[in-house]
Amino acid sequence: MKIALISMEVVPGRPDRNTKTICQKIREAKAAGAELAVCPAFCLSGRFLGRELSQPAFLRDCMDDAQDIARAAEGIAVLFGSIADEAERPVSDGRTLLSARDGALQEVARRPLHASSPFSPLIYALPEEDILIAVDAAPFPTPLRGAGLAALARKHRKTVVYVNALGLQDKGKTVYAFDGVCRVCRADGSVVLTTPPYEDGITVVDTAALTSCETPAKEPEVAPIYRTLRYGVRKFLERIHMERVVVGISGGIDSAVSAALYVDAIGADRVLLVNMPSRFNSATTKGLAAQLAERLGCRSMIVPIEESVAHTVAQLTEISVEGAAAAPGERLKISSFVRENMQARDRSGRVLATIAAAWGAGFTCNGNKAESTVGYATLYGDLAGFFAALADLWKYRVYDLARYLNASVYGREVIPQGIIDIMPSAELSDAQNVDEGKGDPIRYPYHDFLFRAFAEDSRLPEDILQAYAKNALEAYIGCAEGLVASYFPTAADFIADLEHWWGLYTGMAVAKRIQAPPILSVSGHAYGADHPESQIGAYETRAYRRLKEELLNA
Amino acid sequence: MKIALISMEVVPGRPDRNTKTICQKIREAKAAGAELAVCPAFCLSGRFLGRELSQPAFLRDCMDDAQDIARAAEGIAVLFGSIADEAERPVSDGRTLLSARDGALQEVARRPLHASSPFSPLIYALPEEDILIAVDAAPFPTPLRGAGLAALARKHRKTVVYVNALGLQDKGKTVYAFDGVCRVCRADGSVVLTTPPYEDGITVVDTAALTSCETPAKEPEVAPIYRTLRYGVRKFLERIHMERVVVGISGGIDSAVSAALYVDAIGADRVLLVNMPSRFNSATTKGLAAQLAERLGCRSMIVPIEESVAHTVAQLTEISVEGAAAAPGERLKISSFVRENMQARDRSGRVLATIAAAWGAGFTCNGNKAESTVGYATLYGDLAGFFAALADLWKYRVYDLARYLNASVYGREVIPQGIIDIMPSAELSDAQNVDEGKGDPIRYPYHDFLFRAFAEDSRLPEDILQAYAKNALEAYIGCAEGLVASYFPTAADFIADLEHWWGLYTGMAVAKRIQAPPILSVSGHAYGADHPESQIGAYETRAYRRLKEELLNA
Questions:
Q1: Which of A54, A386, A516 is opposite residue B458, by nearest beta carbon?
Q2: Which one, A54, A167, B323, B528, has least CB within 10 Å?
Q3: Do A338 and B330 lie within an 8 Å CB cutoff?
Q4: Are residues B484 and B516 in the same domain?
């Protein structure tokens, strides 16, 4: 049987546009001699629809559009996914698979494979064929897909034809990329075809003549993540009708990776880099920022912020506080800590936001996931931006990306090695002088993994402390051996550090995440829609308190 | 039977603190001669717990704490709510009712009355008594409570004893107040006791001697909303350990109501008002802001922003844009529209955020729900702040509150009548000159109700257009008669306006809401947790397109 596998971009909430795409793909499939065209799950409606889901008018339009598709399926069978009516939704996540041919339309599958599993395509056994159709709408990453398809094929002893949705969909704060990969597995579980990710197109296979495919070339672990980022930022800009991007660059690693990513994704002529030094920024990082801008070949500006910040300090400390509640001659004092955050807000709220508006652009948020986890960022400052493309990546991944960008994407050192080698630092005060080897309070080689245990593996302080007490923490969280003892000479030091970051993670950082930009999900555990949280603060379990007391009294 | 009704503040995610409160209440109930103490639903665990819900360690602690409560229930029966284990959760929302006495503990109810209804307390019939116990954890507003309790009493021909949780809990972006009201209904449905909202305490009733209570005095419709706001801002500040508040005041209605609310809730000595005029602010509004500050008796400052904005304009237009992609001598241009938003960000990101940090305070977001609905606010500008207390109130409610604050809360004109009378205006350009009667593009007497139809009643443009075509729109959305014809001479005008605001509501405003501050829910339909949304943009249904064509061709 000749089957056309359809990789099509699904626009959520736009059945009218998706219907046009499906009808176009049907024509292409027929022209290629296919007897059956298989489109992905939710390809008519989209999957993440917010309140549209609850609108009967929307479902009604989807049904009308499905009829149009059925009429377009002249002389060819078409399978395509849509949204089911509301009554079924708690059971089946709303997905339904429709079969159309010559004007006739019928539902052929509704319940997904495993409603609660990340691998849950809709499955349909083609009548009188040894073929299972699996249509999916699964966002990146899809870790179970390979094994899941092979297991399905072997279990049923049938060929499995799998089609995933392509496109970008969001649940507000969290943005998901769908890779559009199609795959064919033989009954023995061997993969005979995999289409390239993030590419629109149709692929026709003859199930009577399946030949083994070549094993794909080994690629770095970060490669699929990079593809997702590149596709994600490009599509997100399209979605919000934004043509250009402004990136603040500090000479540090996060902003450098962000700049190189956007230049690769949308082109140098659509990116403007802005370096905004204060008196705390070293000649080293200013030089590195300039090198980066020059190597990327896009527009750039240098906008010093010293004068503006000084003006604000002078103005706000000169104006007296009046009113019945004020002391005579009352004035505000501005501490060095307050001055740190002022710089961050001056850069984003004053400079970047204005440049972006003037240039018809959005400005990016370059923060990583370690910073998001503990709120190591300034609200309306470096936490601002139209999109946080790197905010679901731990710091070590950002370094991986920097090396990958140089080695594989650009094939030259666009991100100067100095940026990769320098100590990470916010450079907001003399205490963060990079030339003296001072920097961020986060010790990434350990904290990246501690924070990952909190955020992605749901580990509580009691779990961490138990592993620490057994001298097994590094293996437990996956960081390098020997770090814990070298960072924390005593149990008291270890506990103070743990409680400090746990307190921020469950406290101030929650407040900051509420107002953070949308995040591109690449881990499957991004902050936002998949990480419900309340402003509760730290709670110490009974087991934690007992163990802590034991350790401190040992 | 003597029953103690417990109004207790529940701290979500803190079973240790709630256990202490419950044990203290048990002692008070015993001292008052009660045979049974009834605590609210979820009073041990809290109800909105984010990821804590998924932690077995948390459930384990709740069970251990429940045992402690059972031991404290010496010689008295105690009913209290907690969280059930995860397996039951899809069915029952996790709520469980436990009965404790003399060290023994048992579950007596689990499934709520109506899982899908806003009125869904856990119900338990006391053995050998004609009494139903109803324990609840229902946030404000609780519109069905009165009728629901009476119906329950009549249906079962039993006395109903109802206890609601007290306190503040949040689902991140959305913050809910629980009023702690206890109520007793006789078998005929008549109410014999209602405790005051938002008050901690215990009330002992003898069910053998229930006498009718006086009908409560009639109060303005806005009174319970104001109580919720006052309680909400006070408790939210407590929750985030913030003592002081900075409020930017423009001389307009929203900021005036915000200022008067905070002064009433936390005291004049903990509030600092800041007026930040630019050249577009009239003497009228500057004068009104000064009057407001003087009448509220708190601290105040006047911080002009003209110099800072001019510095930024000069700086960013002087610095040349460099790089391979730039034209020779390329410079940015700053339009008057860009300058409007610059002012808003200068006020919040530069002035208010710095003053707040210097004074150990948070600064408020004063926006209303009409602005939130269509994103009529500047990100990192007037949309910034630690908390948006008024963001679930339509503009007409803000006016109601202003009059209520003067008449009933302060008993004098703290909000100058001029602020209530003036045309609402952002005063960000000459086009918004209040002295010339120019102001916001939102025509609140109509748009408030149109936006409410979108946001709270899930009306689509096709519904609105249908009502318009039948000349029945004003009744349909609840605004004053005659407005539609006076604002929109032709169907084309009407449709252009509808599409403009619907486009913003489903487009740019979604992006802004993602980064907006947490909102205090007072409508039961606040943006945030109860209003899932995706960045999809406007979709025109088939029915809408047909009707529009008919109207435009008529």
A1: A54
A2: A54
A3: no
A4: yes
